[in-house]
Structure formats: C-alpha cells, structure tokens
Amino acid sequence: MIAAYQASSQARVNAALETLFVAPSPELNRLYDAMRYSVMNGGKRVRPLLAYAACEALGAVAEQANGAACAVELIHAYSLVHDDLPAMDDDDLRRGQPTTHKAFDEACAILAGDGLQSLAFSALLDPQLSGASAETRLRMVTALAYAAGPAGMVGGQAIDLGSVGLKLDQTALEYMHRHKTGALIEAAVQLGALASGRADATQLAALQTYAQAIGLAFQVQDDILDVESDTATLGKRQGADIARDKPTYPALLGLEAAKAYALELRDQALHALRPFDAAAEPLRDLARYIVERRH
To answer: pTM value?
Structure first.
C-alpha cells in the first residue's frame, strides 16, 4: 500500500519541483544545475508525502499541497547540502552519489543551499502550486520560517555540532532531535493540513502530536540504521555518527531498547490519529514505514 502511495506522491512532487530549476539567464546555469542536482538526485520524499497525506486526511485533494510539498523538500535538500560541507559533517556521499560540494565545488554548494532555501518560500507562495488563500499562505510561511530557522532545524543542527564527544541524557538528545529533524517533519504535516483549507484547531493539535512522534521516531530509526545497515543501502557513509562520536539513541539506550522506543513512538503517532477516518490511512502507513524502513 505505502509503496504505491509513495510512488505516486514522489512523481507528483518531482514534476512540480522540476518546474523550479529553470535558470533565468545563461550566467546562472551552473548554480541552477547544482540546485537541481541537490534536489533531484533521489531521496525518499518523506516530507512531501507527509504534506500530501495530511492534506488528504482532511478530505482535500493532494494537489492542493503541491506548494507545501515542494517547500519542505527544498528546505530539507538545502539542509543536506550544508550539513555535508567540510565545515560541518564533511561527507562525500549522499543518496549514493557525490555530495554537492564534491560534484561542483564548496562555494557553489553553499550558494546552491542558499538558493534552495529562498526557493522554498517562493514555492509556498506560488499560485501555480498552491490555491490557498492569502491568509492561509501567510500562516504557512510563518510556520515554515519557524521550523527551518534558529528555533527549529538550524538550532538543532547547532546543538548537534556542539554535542560531538559529549554524553547527553535522553532529554537533551530528544530536545536536539525535535529541533534538528522533528521541526521540519512537523512543518510538513502542518503545511499539508493548512493547504487543505479544512483544518480546525482540534485537528491541527492531533496532527501535531502525530508529527512530533514520527519526527522523533524518524531520528531514532536513522540512528539504528547507522549501526545496522551498510553504506550501499543507506546511500551515505554507514557508521558516520559513531566515527564522529555523536550522541545517538543506540549508544544511549542500547540497540534493542532503541528499537523498542521507535515502536513506542509509532504507536503514539497512530493513537493521535484515532479521531480521523480512513482518509488518514496514508498517514498511518507512513508512521509504520518510518520505523520499518531499511534506508
């Protein structure tokens, strides 16, 4: 079930994303090539899937969330480009291919990431991608700016970089990951729900509880895969967190306890969706997928 939904959603968001990488002049071709390379070189598209599924859970059609889906994927891609830079995680491989600074150069990668961040907000406001009202789009921009910025993803990355070699307790580790990974996943669900034009406060609160649980589950499973998987399957260097002496859930809790915690978070997410009918089944499937995936 999830495979078919994932394939159709990936095709939808990829078609929308492709329209965004047309350089306005020949002088900018290389920059746009680097931006396109950073986004269109694979990826699970988990965040766009969540935006579409949240929109559909409220009875709207998935296409209404195209702007939201593009925006969260562009922010995600920009964060990966910058995370991979020598000054940060210094990675050479992403999605089984050379990282952007390896495929182009470091300066071009920095600018590509900057461009993708700005492009995300343009996509969210593009009337061709979103038919939401001006008031709703303002709420969506505000939510994305908060999630992507120093109070969200960027702040989480700052904490992560400052935590290398430290022994964090579970509360501190979760605080970091609710920002670094969870904030953008929460935003994906929120933006998709807002794009439906049908979300009330109670529904948004339930979806936020769902998103908080899967956002943390996603990171726990990432940490597990960093131990159990291999470079070819992951498409990035296996064991990188251990090599950098980063705090992880398996290191803190033990591998089996980390697996149990991922399942507990999945169940919390499913419980939050009890008020929703069968239209929310893709959200339920995604909660299961996040803790069952192998890459």
So the answer is: 0.94
Sequence-distant (6+) residues with CB within 8 A of 69 are 9, 12, 13, 16, 47, 48, 51, 52, 188, 192
146's tokens: 């908060």
Cβ burial of 16 (10 Å; 0-12, 13-18, 19+) is: buried
User: What are the pLDDT digits (tens) for 140-192?
Assistant: 999 999 999 999 999 999 999 999 888 899 999 999 999 999 999 999 999 99
Domains of the chain: 1-290 (1.10.600.10)
Which H or E run contains 225?
Answer: helix 201-228
Q: Between the CA of residue 275 and those of 210, 267, 269, 287, 295, what are the distances in Å?
A: 12, 15, 12, 16, 31
Q: Which two tokens stand for residue 247?
A: 């705090």
* Residue pair 74/39 in contact by the 8 Å Cβ criterion: yes
Task: Please name which of 29, 13, 39 lies closest in space to residue 192, comparing C-alpha atoms.
Answer: 13
- CA atoms 87, 89, 90, 95: torsion sign: negative
